[in-house]
Design a protein that fits this description.
The structure holds 2 protein chains of 2 kinds. Chain A is mainly beta. Chain A contains 2 helices and 4 strands, in the order βαββαβ. Chain B is built from 13 helices and 15 strands. By secondary structure, chain B is α/β, with parallel strands linked by helices. Classes of the chains: A mainly beta, B alpha/beta.
Chain lengths: ~100, ~400
């Protein structure tokens, strides 16, 4: 059972409604949780410089660089933690990183 | 017909485990519980069971292996004593918090220091608040029977909690007694099949077990665990009844021995109950109104039932084979005294004796002394509430 409602807030389930012992009884639920707000630094993608070589995609520890039709897309900022690993591996300097204003 | 045999307490438990043929048995040897996995390993070598037997490198690992196995929906057990139980401590809470009905024969033994391998209840009494169901056994027969009863309690769909099935180290674990064994087919029927809806190896229903729980939900999940214990309180009488119909052995929260008109009573657990019953018989023969209560189910604690059983008694001595070092008595004493608070005017006077620590022999004279002291308690000149039995002063 998910404990996050449509607006991204924690659902106020009673003890009767929650899954036993805090088990999460379905798969892939992390995708629905906004962990992007942990970020301190935020990366930026410079599409003009990018050749879609895909070196950055598998290095992302949070799978936050989506790929569509063989082309990388802009960051998934709901899950990107701003670690900057992708920037280190990019041979074309097609990404930058800076402190995020909140 | 039931099979008559003579077995030690450990042999009896190992035989019960063989009859269950569990999915996983993970253990690390420790005196005096070592016999249980050792005898079981012979059953395994002889092809009499089909279990996965995990020789862990420590008790911490043994309980961890049990938790992993139980998460997959396997019928799982380990056995331990004293320091072995202590090394499992962190995982005891994980097992109960994750609602895994792991079985664990605990062969009661004293803690160090001073170093001691003999019987007292320090180990399981220390673990009384870890969320496990706790059953206690006077003799080998009860140790054997409690194993099956414990499984049924723990695996009940409204409970799903781990269970310690305790008996006295060496005294019953290594003592040979006659025993009635239940036929294999009856055991199979009584324990039935176990399947947990939440299982890590069910590809149709993926699940994450034991994830981090934020403060917003943790209390609700702990209350679910409390509710499981409350549910255990509801289902246990039915399981005892069913077991009684199967074997003719009628069990309850506790055994009341000659309590009908008793003015003075002792409350005790495990093997010393046998000694105390012999004393009750002797005193009854002299016309003294004495009785005994032997607690079988200590967690959940049968609070209302204990209070009702003591409501007509004038003086009670609670016998603790472990101290809690609270300076106000042992663990059973605290619970029993608490249970009696609401009796008001019917509340008996209740004293506490710590006895038999580190394997100190408790003989009939010692128990007779307790009943003698209860006369003074009854008369209102009782002395200290919390005392040591047989201590050299």
């Amino acid at each position: 059972m998910l404990t996050i409602n449509a607006s991204g807030e924690l659902a106020k389930n009673t003890w009767r409604e929650l899954d036993p012992a805090g088990a999460i009884c379905e798969g892939g639920t992390a995708a629905q949780v906004n962990t992007g707000d942990w970020r301190i630094n935020i990366p930026a993608w410079i599409a003009d410089k990018c050749t879609h070589c895909m070196l950055c995609v598998p290095t992302c520890p949070d799978s936050s660089i989506p790929v569509k039709g063989g082309k990388r897309q802009d960051f998934d900022f709901m899950h990107c933690k701003g670690c900057g690993v992708c920037i280190k591996v990019c041979p074309l300097k097609a990404m930058t990183i800076a402190k995020e204003d909140k | 017909m039931a099979v008559k045999d003579r077995l030690t307490g450990n042999e009896a438990v190992a035989y019960a485990v063989k009859q269950v043929n569990p999915d996983v048995f993970a253990a690390f040897p420790i005196t005096p519980s070592t016999d249980v996995p050792m005898i079981f390993s012979s059953y395994l070598a002889n092809g009499e069971v089909t279990s996965e037997f995990v020789l862990a490198e420590s008790e911490h690992s043994a309980m961890s292996a049990c938790i992993g196995a139980a998460c997959s929906g396997a019928r799982t057990l380990t056995a331990t004593s004293a320091c072995g139980l202590a090394l499992m401590w962190e995982l005891l809470y994980v097992a109960s918090g994750m609602r895994l009905p792991i079985m664990m024969p605990v062969i009661n033994r004293a803690f160090s220091a001073p170093l001691n391998i003999n019987c007292d209840h320090s180990d399981s009494m220390g673990a009384r608040d870890t969320g496990w169901i706790q059953l206690y056994a006077e003799n080998n027969q009860e140790a054997y029977d409690n194993y099956f009863i414990g499984m049924r309690i723990g695996e009940h769909k409204d409970v799903l909690l781990p269970v310690m099935s305790c008996q006295d180290g060496f005294i019953t674990s290594h003592g040979l007694e006659n025993i009635d064994l239940i036929e294999d087919d009856k055991v199979k029927k009584f324990i039935g099949n176990y399947s947990n809806e939440v299982s890590l190896i069910n590809p149709k229903h993926p699940v994450s077990m034991g994830p981090y729980d934020i403060p917003f939900y943790y209390m609700e999940h702990k209350y679910q665990q409390v509710q499981a214990v409350k549910n255990a309180k509801k289902v246990i009488p039915g399981i005892f009844k069913e077991f009684g119909e199967l074997t003719g052995r009628k069990y309850s929260w506790f055994e009341e021995y000659k309590m009908e008109d008793a003015e003075r009573a002792i409350i005790i657990l495990n093997s010393s109950a046998g000694t105390a019953k012999a004393v009750v018989d002797q005193l009854r023969a002299k016309g003294e109104k004495v009785g005994l209560i032997k607690i079988r189910v200590y967690r959940p604690f049968p609070m209302e039932e204990i209070a009702a059983a003591l409501s007509k008694v004038k003086a009670v001595a609670v016998m603790d084979k472990a101290d809690s070092f609270s300076n106000c008595g042992g663990p059973v004493y605290t619970d029993v005294r608490h249970a009696c608070y609401d009796l008001g005017e019917n509340r008996p006077k209740i004293i506490n004796f710590i006895y038999g620590l580190g394997g100190r022999d408790v003989q009939m004279d010692n128990i007779a002394h307790v009943y003698e002291e209860l006369k003074k308690t009854m008369a209102g000149s009782g002395g200290e509430l919390y005392r040591y039995l047989g201590l050299r002063e």
